[in-house]
Specification:
heterodimer, A: mainly alpha, about 0% strand, globular, B: alpha/beta, 6-stranded mixed sheet, 4-stranded antiparallel sheet, about 25% helix, about 25% strand
C-alpha cells in the first residue's frame, strides 16, 4: 500500500467538501424535524395521518412532473401537495368522506408520478430519490427553498397554535366561542401541504409519515400536556432525522431506513413507557377515587 | 322573578320560524331571554331544540323572523357565549389534561402559544375549585369518567364569564348524583353572575327547581311560560293535539300519553298506561 491509496481515501479536500455537504443536510434535516415535530400533534388530533400519505403522493407526482419538464423540483412538489391538501380540505370535512377522497387521489397521484418518471430520461437516482429520500443531495438553492418554506410553516403554526388546538380537540365549543373553525382548518391544510412537500425532498414520498406522524404519536403516548407534547415530538423528530443522516453517512445506503428505524424505535419505547405508566397511573387513580368517595 | 327583570334581553327572537323543506320546526316564536333567567327547552327528539341552539350560535339561519344576541344580529359564535355540548367522550390520547380544557375556555380563541399567563392560570384554578375538579386537574381528559368530564365542561363553559350559557343535553348519561351537581353548578353561575341559561333537555326533572321559563316544542307548535303554566295536561294536550296527562308526584313531573309520530318522546319521565305490564 503506498501513500497514494490512503491519500485517495483520506483526501483532505474531499473531506471538507463532504463536511460542507453534510452540514447542509444536517441543517435541513434538523429544520425538517422541527416542522414535522410541531405539525405532528395536529395531524394526530385532527385525524389526518392518512391525508398526509395522500398529499405526499400528489407531491411526488408534482416533483416528477417538474423533473420531466426541467423546472424546480421543490416547486413542483409544492404545487402537487398544495393542490392535494386544499382539495382534501375542501371536500373532506367529515372523516369518512375525507378518507374516500384520499383513497381516490392517492393512486392517481402515484400513477401520474410513475408516468412522468417513465418519460423522464435523466439520472435514475433522481427518480428513486423522490420516493425514498435523497437528503445527501440537498444543494444550496434547494436548501434555501426548504428554509423559507419551513420557516413559514413554523411561524404560522406558532401564531395560530392556541385557536388551532381549540379547533382540533374541541371543535363544537371552539365554534360556539367564535373561533373561525373553517378558516383555521383550511389554513392548516395549506401548512400541511407545505410541510409534506419539504419532507418529500428529504425522506421521500413513501416515508413522510415517519416524520409527520410517528414522532407526535410517540410523544402522545407519554404525555398529555399540550406544551410537552410538541416539545417531545420535535425532539423525537430531530433525533430521527439528524441521527439517520449521521448513521447513513458511513455506508452506501440511503438515509430513509435509518430515519424510519430510529423514529419507529422511539415510538416503541414511548409505547412501553406509556403502557407501564398507565398501569401504575390508573391504579393510583382508582385508589385516589376510592379515598375521595 | 328574574324572568320578568327589565333590561336588554341577552337573546331575543321575534316572529322566528325555522323549517327544513316542508317540515316546520317552529313558527312565529317570540322569546326574550334575560340576564339571570333559566330557560328550559323541552320537547321530543326532532322538534328543533338543538336547532334553536344552533340558531343562537349563528350556525343555522332562520327561515323568517329575527334573532339578536345582546341587541345585535347573532354572530357566528361569540366570546359572550359559554357552551356545553352533548356529552361526547374525548378520544383516548387527546393531548389535553382537565385543566387544559378549561384553559381553552378562557383563552383558546386568542392567537399565540399555549403558555397561559398567571392571570389565566389563577382563573383556571378558581374554576377547577368551583366545579370540584381540583383533584383531577392534571389527569388527561380522556381518562376521566363521564361525570368528571361534564364537570370540566361546565367549568370550561363558565371560565370566561359568559353572558349566556347554552347547554345541549349536558346531563345525558350522567347518574342522578352527577345530574344534581352539574345542574346546581349551572344554577349557581346564573344566580351569582346573572348569566342567562338556555338549557336543552329531554328530562326537566333534574333542573325543575331552577327553571324560570319553559319553551316546549312539539310537532311544529310551541308554548312559552313558567313550568306551572306550560307543564299541564290541557296545555300539552293542545300542543300534541291529543289527550296528554301531566302528573306531578313528589316534586317530579311525569307525562303520560304523548302520541306516536313525534320521534322518541322521552322528553319527560313517562308512565306506562295502567293495566299494561311493565
Amino acid at each position: 500500500m503506498d501513500g497514494d491509496f490512503w491519500g485517495q481515501i483520506f483526501n483532505f479536500a474531499d473531506y471538507s467538501e463532504l463536511l460542507a455537504l453534510v452540514q447542509n443536510s444536517i441543517f435541513a434535516g434538523a429544520l425538517l424535524g422541527v416542522v414535522g415535530g410541531l405539525i405532528g400533534p395536529f395531524v394526530m388530533t385532527r385525524d389526518l395521518a392518512f391525508a398526509v400519505h395522500g398529499v405526499s403522493e400528489l407531491s411526488f407526482a408534482g416533483a416528477a412532473a417538474a423533473l420531466l419538464f426541467g423546472v424546480n423540483v421543490v416547486a413542483g412538489s409544492l404545487v402537487g401537495s398544495l393542490a392535494a391538501a386544499i382539495l382534501i380540505g375542501l371536500l373532506g370535512a367529515k372523516a369518512r368522506e375525507r378518507n374516500s377522497i384520499i383513497a381516490v387521489l392517492m393512486p392517481f397521484g402515484l400513477g401520474l408520478g410513475i408516468l412522468f418518471l417513465s418519460l423522464y430520461g435523466g439520472r435514475s437516482s433522481n427518480k428513486f430519490g423522490l420516493l425514498t429520500g435523497q437528503i445527501v443531495s440537498v444543494d444550496n438553492p434547494q436548501l434555501l427553498w426548504l428554509i423559507v418554506v419551513s420557516t413559514v410553516v413554523i411561524a404560522a403554526l406558532l401564531i395560530m397554535w392556541r385557536p388551532l388546538t381549540f379547533a382540533s380537540v374541541d371543535e363544537d365549543v371552539a365554534r360556539a366561542r367564535g373561533v373561525p373553525v373553517v378558516a383555521i382548518s383550511m389554513a392548516f391544510m395549506v401548512l400541511l401541504g407545505l410541510a409534506t412537500a419539504v419532507s418529500v425532498q428529504i425522506v421521500g414520498a413513501l416515508l413522510v409519515l415517519a416524520l409527520l406522524v410517528t414522532p407526535a404519536a410517540a410523544a402522545m403516548r407519554v404525555t398529555a400536556s399540550p406544551l410537552l407534547t410538541p416539545i417531545l415530538s420535535v425532539i423525537f423528530a430531530v433525533v430521527s432525522v439528524v441521527g439517520g443522516i449521521l448513521l447513513a453517512l458511513g455506508g452506501a445506503l440511503p438515509i430513509s431506513p435509518y430515519v424510519t428505524s430510529i423514529s419507529f424505535l422511539i415510538y416503541l419505547i414511548c409505547r412501553i413507557v406509556g403502557w407501564r405508566r398507565a398501569r401504575r397511573g390508573s391504579s393510583a387513580r382508582q385508589i385516589a377515587r376510592a379515598a375521595a368517595d | 322573578m328574574t324572568a320578568r327583570a327589565p333590561g336588554t334581553p341577552i337573546v331575543s327572537l321575534k316572529a322566528a320560524s325555522l323549517s327544513f323543506g316542508d317540515r316546520q320546526l317552529w313558527h312565529g316564536l317570540d322569546l326574550d331571554v334575560r340576564a339571570g333567567e333559566f330557560v328550559a327547552v323541552l320537547g321530543p327528539n326532532g322538534s328543533g331544540k338543538t336547532s334553536l341552539l344552533k340558531t343562537i350560535l349563528g350556525q343555522q339561519k332562520l327561515t323568517s323572523g329575527t334573532i339578536e344576541l345582546l341587541g345585535k344580529p347573532v354572530p357566528r359564535g361569540s366570546r359572550m357565549i359559554g357552551y356545553i355540548p352533548q356529552q361526547k367522550l374525548l378520544e383516548r390520547g387527546t393531548p389535553l389534561r382537565a385543566r387544559d380544557l378549561i384553559t381553552l375556555g378562557v383563552d383558546g380563541h386568542r392567537f399565540g402559544l399555549p403558555i397561559p399567563s398567571r392571570a389565566v392560570r389563577a382563573r383556571v384554578d378558581d374554576v377547577l375549585e368551583a366545579v370540584g375538579a381540583s383533584g383531577y386537574a392534571k389527569v388527561p381528559v380522556s381518562l376521566l369518567s363521564g361525570g368528571e368530564q361534564q364537570r370540566i365542561r361546565v367549568g370550561q363553559s363558565i371560565a370566561a364569564h359568559p353572558r349566556l350559557l347554552l347547554c345541549d343535553e349536558p346531563l345525558l348519561s350522567l347518574d342522578l348524583h352527577h345530574q344534581r351537581t352539574v345542574s346546581e353548578l349551572i344554577d349557581e353561575q346564573r344566580r351569582t353572575l346573572g348569566t342567562a341559561v338556555v338549557f336543552v333537555t329531554h328530562d326537566v326533572n333534574p333542573i325543575l327547581p331552577f327553571v324560570d321559563t319553559v319553551l316546549y316544542l312539539a310537532g311544529g307548535r310551541f308554548r312559552v311560560g313558567t313550568p306551572d303554566e306550560v307543564l299541564r295536561s290541557e296545555v300539552l294536550s293542545s300542543i300534541y293535539d291529543t289527550p296528554v296527562e301531566v302528573i306531578r308526584t313528589g316534586g317530579r313531573i311525569a307525562v303520560h300519553g304523548t302520541p306516536e309520530g313525534y320521534g322518541v318522546h322521552d322528553h319527560l319521565e313517562h308512565l306506562l298506561p295502567p293495566g299494561v305490564p311493565g
